[in-house]
Structure formats: C-alpha cells, structure tokens
Amino acid sequence: MALPQEKLTATEERLASLAMPEMCGCTRAAREDALARVQEMGLPGRRDEYWKYTRPDTLISAQAPRAEVFDAGEPMIFEDMDNLKIVFVDGVFSPEESDDLTLEGVMIDRIEDICGKDIHWAKELYGALESRGQTPVPRPLAALNTAFAKDGVAIHVTGKPSKPICLMYRHASETSDAMLHHVIRVEPDAEVTVLEVGPAASRFNKVMEIDIADNGTLHHVRAQGRDHERRAMTHMFARLGTESTYKSFTLTANGVLTRNEQVVELTGDDAVAHVAGACVGDGDFHHDDTVFITHDAVNCESRQVFKKVLRNGATGVFQGKILVKEGAQKTDGYQISQSLLLDDDSQFLAKPELEIYADDVACSHGSTSGAIDETALFYLRSRGVPVKDATNMLTLAFLAEAVDEIEDSEVAEKIVNRLEDWLARRS
Amino acid sequence: MAALDQTQVKEGVDQETVDAVREAGTYKYGWDTDIEMEYAPKGVNPDIVRLISDKNEEPEWMTEWRLSAFERWTKMEEPTWAMVHYPPIDFQDQYYYARPKSMEEKPKSLDEVDPKLLATYEKLGIPLKEQMILAGVEGAENAPAEGRKVAVDAVFDSVSVGTTFKDELAKAGVIFCSISEAIKEHPELVKKYLGTVVPVSDNFYATLNSAVFSDGSFVYIPPGVRCPMELSTYFRINAENTGQFERTLIIADKGSYVSYLEGCTAPQRDTAQLHAAVVEIIVEEDAEVKYSTVQNWFPGDENGKGGIYNFVTKRADCRGDRSKVMWTQVETGSAVTWKYPSCILRGNESQGEFYSIAIANNYQQADTGTKMIHLGKNTKSRIVSKGISAGKAQNTYRGLVSMHPKAKDSRNYTQCDSLLIGDKCGAHTVPYIEVKNNSSRVEHEATTSKVDDDQLFYCRQRGMDEEEAVALVVNGFCKDVLQALPMEFAMEAQQLVAISLEGSVG
Is the distance from CB of A89 to CB of A208 less than 8 angstroms? Predict the structure, then answer.
C-alpha cells in the first residue's frame, strides 16, 4: 500500500539527511534490506496506532533538536565499578577513554571490523533480529538504525567473564545525532552482564540485537543519563534459546523524550525473560516503555515490571504486550505497569495487551495509577517522619518492585542511590 | 425469604443448564417464519434512504438528517483495527428494508397483528400478549404480579410489529414505542436528543445506521418516575440477505429509573447477514438506567458458514450529576461481534458500570469491550468482563478508561478474565488506560487461564460428564456478571452459556 503523502515526505526528508557508512562492507546487504524496509513502512507518524501516546516528530526530523550538555558534577553511575569500559562520545567509539577490550570469556570488536576479521556470527546477526521484530508491528526507526548506524560493537560471549561490560555513552555536542548498533551473541552455558550508561547524544537511536543460545544468560542494566533536553529512541531485540535467561532493567531520570522498545522472543523451551524499568520524571519529560514479548516455546516465563513516578506535568507511557503463539503451552506471563502521580498535572497512558492462542497458560496483567496513599503517609507522619521524608520513602518503596529485578546487589544499590539523589534534589 | 427464593432458583437453573446441554441442536432459534415480505430494492443510495424515510412517513427534517448521514458515509472507510477477519462486505448486495406485507397498514392494536408474527414471537418465548410473565421463567408464577410485568416492543426485520402495555405505561407518563412512531408523535423529543450521544459521523457503522435505520425503540421516562415495569425490545431478523439497522433512544429524565432488556435472534442461514445498530441513552440528574442485552444472533454453523455480522454502537451519556448507567451484556451469538457499549460520565458523581460475558465457539469472533470516559468530578466506573473462547474462536476485550484532568477524585476498577477451552482458540485483551490527574485511582487486572483440571476432576468424580462439568465451571466463572442481570435474563443467559459451548469439549 502506498504511504500517505505526509509520511512519505517526512521519510524522504529524513533519508536525504543520512548516508550509509562507506566502510560497511559485509553489512551492506543487511543495510540495504533495512533501507528498503524503511521506505516501505515509512517513518512513524502521529496517526500510527503504535505511536498513539508518543509524538515521533522530533525523533524523525532531519536535524536533531539541540540539547544542552548537562554537567551533573559527579562520575557516571557505573564509572567507579570494576568493569570493562567501552566509551562512545556522541555515538563515536573513543579508544583513548575505553579500556583494553580483551577479557577472558568474551571477544569484543567494533562493527566496522567484523568484515575484515570475518566474524561470521556477527555478520549473520546484524539486522536479523531487527528484521524479525518488524512483524506484526513495524518498528521503522530500528530499521533506519540498521541501515545507517555508524558505530557499535559485536560482543561474543563464550564463557563467564569476570566483570561486567560497560557501554558508556558520553554527550559532548549540543547538536549530536548518534546511531549505534550493537550485536551480542551469548554461547551455550555462557553468562555476561552488560551495563549501559549515559545520555549518549542530543538525539540517540540505538539498536541492540541479542542472541542467547541454550542455557546462556544475559543480564542487562542501564541508566539513561540525566541531560534534560536529550532524546532517545532505543530498541532491544532479544532471541532466547532453550533454558536461557534474559534480564533487563532500565532506569530513566529526566530527558525530554525517551522511548525504549524491548522486543523479546522466547524460541526455546523453559526460557526466562524479565524486563523491568523504573522511571522518574519531573516537568518536561515524556517516557515511553514499549514491550513486545512473544512466547513461541513450551514452559517459558516472562515478567514485565514497570514503575513510573511523575510530577510537574511529566508523561509516562506503557505499551506492553504478551503474545502467546499456538502451541506455547505452560506459558507463565506476567505484566505490571504502575504509575505514581505526584501532582495533578502529570499523566499516565497505558495499553497493556494480551494476545493468546494457547489454552494451558497462566497470563495476567495489572495496571494502576494513583497518588501517594494517604493512609500510609499518615501512618509515617504519626510516627514522627516529616512529610517530605515520608513521601520519599513511599516513592522508593513504590519503585522497589522494579529495582528488585536486578540480581547484582552492587548494581542495584547504585540504582537506588541514584533514585534517592533524584528525590533529594526535588524535595 | 428473599435469600431462600434465590437458592431455589439457582438449584432449578443448574438442572436446566444440564438439560440444555443434553438438548440436541446447538441453535434453537434457527427456524424461519414463512411470511410474505415486502422489500426495498437491494443496495443503498439516496433513493433507498428516501424510500425508508417515506415508508416511515417521516417529516422532512428527518429525511434530511438521514441524507446528510448517507453523504458522510460514502466518504468513510470501514474500520479494520478490530481483531476480526471476515470477507469484504458488499454493502450494495443487501436489502436495507424488509417488512411483512401484513404490516403495510399499521395495525392499531396487537389484536390486528398478523397471527403468524405473533406466533413467531410466541415460539421465541416472547408472547406479545399482555400477560404477566415472560415464558420460561420457572417459579415466576408465584412472584407478585406487579414486579413481573415486562413491556415488549417487537421488531421484525425492518419494522416494529407491536408494543405491549402501552396504556399502562402511559398512565405513568412513560413513553415506550417504536422510534418511527416517536418521530411522528414526539418530534420535539427526538429532535432534541437523537444523534447527541452518538453523532451522525461517529463511526462507519453508526453513520450507515443514521442513514438507513428503519425502526427501533424509543423510551422516555419523565422526571421522578420509576418505570413501573421492565421494558424490553426483541429483535428478530427473518428475511434473507437483509440487514437490520435499528436505532434505540432512551431518555431518563431527572430522578427517573428504568430497566431495559434487549434480546435478539435470527434464522440459520448459509450467508452472513449484517446487523448495525445504534443505541443512545441520555441520563439526566439522579436518573438511573439499566440496560441488559442477551445477544443470541445466529452464530454461523460449526464450519463458520453464515451468521450475523454484528456491528453495534452503544453509548450512554450521564449528563446529570449523580446519574447512573449500567450495561450488562451476554454475547453468545453472531459470527462477528464489534461492540463497545460506552459511558460518558459527564455529571459529577455519575457512575458507569459494564458487565459482560462474551462467549465465542466454533469460528465465532468477538471484539467487544467498553469505554469509560470520566469528565465529571467524583465519577466512578466498574468494568467486569468475562471472555470465553472455545473451538476455533477468537475473543478480544478492547476497552478504554480515560480520566480527564477535571475528573478529580474519580475511580475505576477493571477486571477482564479470559477462559480458553481447547488449544485452537484465542483470547486477547487490549485495554487503553489514560490517566490525566492524580486524585483519581485506576486499577486494571486481567487474567487468562484454562478450565481448571482439578475442578473438572471434582465434577466428573461426582458423576457429571465432561460437557456438563465444563458448563458448570464456566457458569461459575461468569457468576459475577450473571448476578448483575435481571432475573429473567439471568436464567436465559445461564442456559445460553451451556448451549453455546456445546460440542467444544473432547
């Protein structure tokens, strides 16, 4: 079907502002396929049902809107931890700031090197999961990323590396428009923790394709930087093999616009996928979590836990879906999305969906929205806790269910500290 | 005493449920009435719209209203967002108007109505005699006569064939008649309210309905009146290749109360038939309307052949403060259902409730739910939806709860449960939740599961066969909704639940 004129124009304008990297060699075919997908689907428009609650205008414009670089005056969240740092500045790999990329149990290469080094798995994976993730719902910004991403890493996990791999995204220029595309392959029985931190750029489009083989495990924790004016559009595509585990947690504080899509496919029996997020927003803040989990194997478990604290006109969006395919019996699917509205100007928009074609399943979802519980507040105050402290305490307790999804206690503690700081700055 | 009566009824019903399961033939309303019909030419165009308007002897303003609706309809596109699939409908290959020949001269009273028509309704269990009770209600003979009266408006294809208890209702000031009569006799009321809840251009099917609706019911309850009996409309599609487009308008003026029932059936045919209705309810200050539907259109046979395409727009506007509306629906029929009875909670402290059971078996597809739009302060809404899928059916709950910034201190509770019987069917939930203030509380819960093996085992251990056991468990699953129905309907619904699931086990 031909695209509506408005969409066609927007797509053409955006495509005209981009060029495929010259050194893309073996990924060229995947990139050209992705470009064809973008041209066919068109970039998201405000009339698209999947973009009902988030306006895509500033994510698809030819020029990235300016975003002031914010100096938080403190190190980035996982900077002082023992981990292997891979640093990108405005979406460009920085070898000077990064650690040496050798670590036992894992091989790390830049995307531009996968052709020269003939890294087969990465060539095959690049764009493959993104392409699968285009049905039943199109995700044109992910295809745009596959076609035009200039940098990224290929992480091959063959064992159990001794420390986490930390992708640090620094923001340096007010007009930066970055696209990163990472591919990760976790081999059977291997296990890794991947951390992501930082605002990355004024406008950031990131795709991460994760292929987890049987019995493999990937933990993912990210904290999306505090820059108030930054915009981010991220996609995580994960495919899970038999008895594999994928656990992802995202902390988002501020940022004028964020949309995080998670597209998870459970293709092997007994696989486990947990996707969680905590977001705190104040003022001009729009945060969108869009999750699509497909159960296509027997006895798999999926959990979605999303908590949002909103104030001063902030908007929180949750679109979550559990799709249970025919034959995916014994599925255990759970989804919860909750928002705490700290004042009357903020809003929460949710669309928690279930689509189920198998009968022996237990799927449930819940969604709530409301203010701080007056009774709980009264209880704390009657025991001498000042209003502000009591409110903060209850807010943290509200977010706890999401933070609890992080298995590494050191990482979880850092996340909690950040949340406490955020609350402290605002009370 | 009341409690005891209820227990007796329940015991009786369980037995009936069991009997119903044993009964052969799944759709017992599948017969047709051999009666001479008069058709308008096939298709829809301004001439047909004028013809329908003419047949109903409508005033000029009504004809104009219809024509402008038709004009808009030609520019609209059929919606495709619902999770239902059916071959494209040829809107020009339908009859938009069909009435029994004998209705050419409008009968002045029920005595003049063609006996064949009366017999039809008799057979459906809806006698059009002004008698005290609806047939098939056990134990109702002993109930006090006052409480058991039900006034019925019977619609046969495109026309209303008669309305019972009109005089008695008139004494209370209640107007209950067909909408064609209301347009002639109460034009000021129709003009004031028609199209104010569901605007002409609301959606594709509502717009088509606005252009070609042929009949339906009209209810006006004056201020402070508690309608002395339940009102009921029974819709019957009889003619082949005929679409039924009815329009219902209910106005509950300040402080009034009415309970309204709607039932529908159609003969068993190989080709799908179209039904696109619009129901508008206006609820003024302190008024309350209870609207209950048992939808049992022909669902198509076990291979998915035939059946009714049911595209319905139902909406209630709680205009006054403290007004209340309650939708209860049991959807067991239709090949395709596309229906979202909604509440606009405009008045402060107004309340909306939605209770639904949707059962889809064989190749049926149901996409149904509700919209609760909270505009006034302190408004409350409650949604309880039970979806049951069996065979190769698809059942979708689609709903919206919207708390506007000014709807302070409002409350919503939503519960959607789906039950799957068999591994070839589907159950889906698509809720939209929009909260734009923080003093309101919104809760949404949904679960999907299959018929519990332990419960089945328990029933079978006590000598029930598998189908009986499933029917019993399913009735238990639907209990919350069945309890919200008026008694006559509750029993019919309970039986329907069992019948609709027949053949889905094993």
Answer: no
Nearby residues of A22 by Cβ (< 8 Å), 6 or more positions away: none
Query: Inter-chain contact B431–A353, Cβ cutoff 8 Å?
Result: yes
Range A381-417 burial, b when 16+ CB lie within 10 A, else e: eeeebeeeebbbebbbebbeebbebbebeebbebbbe
Whether residue A370 and residue B438 make contact (CB cut-off 8 A), yes or no, is yes
Q: How many CB pairs under 8 A join A and B?
A: 118
Query: Considering only alpha carbons, which residue of chain B is nearest residue A321?
Result: B430
Q: Is A19 helix (H, G, I), strand (E, B) or coil?
A: coil
Q: Can you list the residues of chain A whose pLDDT is less than 70?
A: 1, 23
User: Which residues does chain A have within 8 Å of residue B433's beta carbon, measured at their own beta carbons?
Assistant: 348-352, 367, 369
Rounded to an integer, what distance in angstroms lies between the CA atom of residue B350 and that of residue B345?
A: 6
Backbone angles phi, psi at A404, to 5 degrees: -60, -15
Top residue of B429, B443, B447, B452 to mutate, by most chain A CBs within 10 Å, is: B429
- DSSP character at residue B349: T
Closest CA to B497 of B472, B460, B480: B472
Nearest chain B residue to A364 by CA distance is B447
**How far apart (Å, rounded) are the C-alpha atoms in residues B199 and B299?**
29
Cβ of residue B439 closer than 8 Å to a chain A Cβ: yes
- Which tokens hold the place of A312? 């001063």
Q: A254: closest CA among A231, A223, A285, A293?
A: A285
Residue of A nearest to B445 (CA): A366
User: Among candidates A178, A177, A176, A206, which has minimal Cα distance to A194?
Assistant: A206
Return the CA Rg of chain B: 22
Window 7-66 of A: residues touching B by CB (8 A cutoff) are 49
Q: Assign B120 to helix, strand or coil.
A: helix
Report the chain B residue with the minimal C-alpha distance to residue A52. B432
Q: What is the pTM of this model?
A: 0.89
Whether A172 and A87 have beta carbons less than 8 Å apart is answered as no
Q: Please report the pLDDT score of residue A277 as a whole number.
A: 97
Q: Does B405 sit within 8 Å of A327, measured CB to CB?
A: no
Pick from B257, B262, B184: which is nearest to B217 by CA?
B262
pLDDT at B505: 62
Exposure string for B75-108, b = 16+ CB within 10 A, e = fewer: eeeeeeebbbeeeeeeeeebbbbbbbebbeeeee
Please tell me the distance in Å from B70's CA to the nearest CA on chain A.
26
Q: Which of B344, B369, B358 is nearest to B394 (CA)?
A: B358
pLDDT for residue A395: 96
- Name the pLDDT band for B15 (thresholds 50, 70, 90): low
Determine contact: B436 vs chain A, CB below 8 A.
yes
H/E element, B329 = strand B324-331
As a whole number of angstroms, the distance between CA B297 and CA B27 comes to 9
Q: What are the phi and psi torsion angles at B499 (to 5°)?
A: -65, -40
pLDDT bin (cut points 50, 70, 90) of residue B115 is confident
Identity of residue B150: V
Q: What angle do CA A221, A227, A229 make, to 5 degrees?
A: 125
The mean per-residue pLDDT over the stretch B96-100 comes to 88
CB B324 within 8 A of CB B381: no
Could you tell me whether strands B336-339 and A245-253 are parallel, antiparallel, or unpaired per DSSP bridges? unpaired
Question: Which chain B residues are within 8 Å of A315, Cβ to Cβ?
Answer: none
Where exactly are the structural domains of chain A?
5-372
Q: Which of A341, A359, A366 sits opposite B438 (nearest CB)?
A: A341
A354 touches B at CB < 8 Å: yes
Q: What is the DSSP letter of A387?
A: H
User: Alpha-carbon distance A93 to A168, whole Å?
Assistant: 10
Q: Are B504 and B470 in contact (CB under 8 A)?
A: yes
Taking the CB of residue A378, how many other CB atoms lie within 10 A of it? 11
